[in-house]
Specification:
elongated; Cyclophilin; rotamase; peptidylprolyl isomerase; 641 residues; 35 strands; 12% helix; peptidyl-prolyl cis-trans isomerase activity
């Protein structure tokens, strides 16, 4: 496979560099140049030795984009009673939404927008999977309590209850449209077994039990009706092909791979990742897969199993492109830092089995040329032919979108007469117009969001309250929001004396809030100054005393608040310690000299105004080779005013 076929939207290679967890003295010199010395060869383009490679072009790209949403803001949202986890658009024009409290709703796509159809309580426990049949006539939910429900989507009816006797992990309809039996494959959370049920059967006894396809629990299955093929992925990183009929092996099709070693299906195992989502293209000749935890989006050829595209959406790639200014669009540093903190929270708390990040998926447009998936910047629309991000949907929203469903069809398909076509009736034109809509869930939100085309009015009523607000909702949205008052002074009581501080809440409100809240909660009590460098600074705030610990009051790193009005241009500056941009936690330091080389790297959030002799007394204590005092210097407590 050529390098062009593996073109990556993001960084290609990254040098490993050790990041300091705290500030360091100014380097002795920074005048070295990495420029090459001596003559350089004539570029190939100039000497005619090599032809300029033609760029790939997608014919009618503009037409494809006109049939996709392009709004920077969502135009409507609807509620569930609890956090949504799945949205699915069926081929019959129905939207199915589920939430973690066991509820499911069916909505019908209209000429413009959607209309609520019916509400079901599918389980008393969480919905862990939602599957729609290939023809869009059936859907099934599976729940953590070991039950499943089968629904007739078109007739809005529940037609079967399944009792598994085990905790299900994933479900997928594995029958072709028009087949005599509606076959539902269900995997087991605690074993590698896959059981196939008759969706209209007794709901207890499986028709088949497959125990040799995988060796680890299967968390993902998709069915290709074109090739009568199931693609499944397990928690060990393996991806398998199998036919949903005996002998349950790879189907013998023209062009289908014969030996798995000739494919790239081991990509996930080799990179120690898993396929978190698999989505077939409309012609089913390709499929996309989002890998976790490295967040790379892969595109495979279905028949050959070869990897044709890889898009790097890792946090490292996003950070590098933000700093270099090569991202699709550049966010304000504070906004980017906030979004990055949410992504790290996702990685830490929501990337495991059952986590919110596992529900993230990618969707194809009807042409099979455009791929849409959610990132920290918004929902990217990638032209997989030219390998470019051609659009970012929802980039003005602060929400972190996860599960997507796309509608592109024209709802009204009645036959037009010649007179109707020749008329200038706006109602007829409206019925013939498309209404492309992207439906999205978001992290920790009990709503799903709809994106369309055009500009959304700034003060439009976007959020529909189709559920009765709970007491929690009233608590979150008070009648008159109370303005948060932050302290402007603090005193550090040490075993060497008191240090009086003036705080800058108007310049660094989040940093001051973090420091003051920790102080009030006793987080800094008896914490040592673990790093002291004479004629530079004293650093503390790590409860472990190692310089590697401590966290913010929010439990995750938060963004820098760099201000040109507060610099390290004088001694006694109070500043936040970090391990790089937007990685602030609980540690802080007080300078003993001017340190202008720290400007732009650390957040200044105060100055010492009293107890300066205490600062110098601490500065002059004996330390070891790691700058740690031989005798502990402790903060007994911190008082904020």
């Amino acid at each position: 496979m050529s390098e062009d076929e593996r073109a990556t939207l993001g960084k290609r290679a990254r040098e490993e560099a050790s990041a300091s967890a705290s500030p360091g003295p100014a380097p002795p010199g920074d005048d070295d140049s990495d420029d090459e010395i001596g003559p350089m060869p004539v570029p190939a383009a100039e000497n005619g030795a090599a032809r300029k490679k033609r760029r790939a072009v997608l014919p009618h790209e503009r037409l494809y984009l006109e049939h996709l949403p392009d709004a920077d803001r969502y135009y409507k949202s609807f509620m569930h009673r609890d956090t949504l986890n799945y949205v699915v658009m069926t081929k019959t024009g129905y939207l199915i939404t589920t939430s973690i409290d066991g509820h499911m709703k069916i909505w019908k796509k209209q000429d413009s927008g959607i209309e609520f159809v019916k509400h079901f309580r599918t389980s008393l426990s969480s919905v862990v999977g939602l599957a729609a049949s290939d023809d869009g006539k059936l859907c099934a939910t599976i729940s953590a309590n070991g039950e499943g429900r089968v629904f007739d989507v078109v007739n809005f009816d529940m037609i079967n209850i399944l009792k598994f006797g085990f905790t299900p992990k994933a479900a997928c309809w594995v029958h072709a449209p028009g087949a005599g039996q509606a076959l539902l494959a269900v995997s087991d959370e605690k074993s590698a077994a896959i059981r196939i049920y008759d969706g209209r059967g007794d709901g207890v006894t499986p028709l088949h039990v497959l125990e040799k396809v995988h060796r680890a629990p299967v968390h993902l299955m998709v069915y290709s009706s074109k090739f009568d093929l199931v693609i499944s992925a397990d928690e060990a990183g393996f991806v398998e092909y199998w036919q949903p009929s005996e002998p349950w092996s790879v189907p013998a099709l023209p062009g289908m791979w014969q030996y798995k070693s000739s494919t790239d299906l081991f990509q996930f195992k080799k990179t120690r990742t898993i396929a978190a989502s698999i989505t077939l293209s409309p012609n089913q000749r390709h499929f996309s897969a989002i890998a976790l935890p490295d967040r790379k989006v892969h595109i495979f050829n279905t028949l050959t199993g070869k990897l044709t595209r890889t898009y790097d959406e890792s946090l490292e790639a996003a950070s590098e492109m933000q700093q270099a200014g090569t991202a699709v669009f550049k966010l304000e540093d504070m906004d980017f830092g906030r979004r990055l903190a949410i992504e790290r929270e996702l990685d830490r708390d929501h990337s495991g089995p059952g986590g919110a990040l596992r529900t993230a998926n990618a969707v194809w447009d009807e042409s099979g040329n455009m791929l849409l998936y959610a990132t920290l910047l918004g929902i990217k629309v990638v032209n997989t032919v030219t390998n470019k991000v051609v659009r970012v949907v929802g980039k003005d929203e602060s929400l972190r979108f996860l599960n997507l469903a796309l509608f592109q069809g024209a709802p009204s398909k009645q036959v037009q007469t010649l007179a109707m076509a020749a008329s200038a009736n706006p109602l007829l034109q409206e019925k013939a117009a498309r209404d492309p809509t992207l439906f999205c869930t978001a992290l920790n939100k009990a709503r799903f969001y709809m994106f369309g085309r055009g500009v959304v009015e700034e003060h439009a009523e976007r959020d529909v309250y189709n559920e009765r607000p709970t007491a929690e909702d009233h608590a979150v949205v008070p009648d008159k929001p109370a303005k948060k008052v932050l302290p402007t002074a603090a005193t550090i009581h040490t075993n060497k004396g008191d240090i009086h501080l003036k705080l800058f809440p108007h310049l660094a409100p989040k940093t001051v809030e973090n420091f003051a809240t920790h102080a009030r909660n006793g987080y800094y009590n008896n914490v040592i100054f673990h790093r002291i460098i004479k004629k530079f600074m004293l650093q503390g705030g790590d409860p472990t005393g190692t310089g590697m610990g401590g966290e913010s009051i929010w439990g995750s790193e938060f963004e820098d608040e760099i201000s040109p009005l507060a610099k390290h241009d004088r001694p006694y500056t109070l500043s936040s310690a970090n391990a790089g941009p937007n990685t602030n936690g609980s540690q802080f330091f007080i300078t003993t000299v001017a340190t202008p080389h720290l400007d732009g790297k650390h957040t200044v959030f105060g100055r010492a105004t009293g107890g300066l002799e205490v600062i110098h007394a601490i500065e002059n204590v004996a330390t070891d080779k790691n700058d740690k005092p031989l005798d502990d210097v402790r903060m007994v407590s911190i008082t904020v005013e």
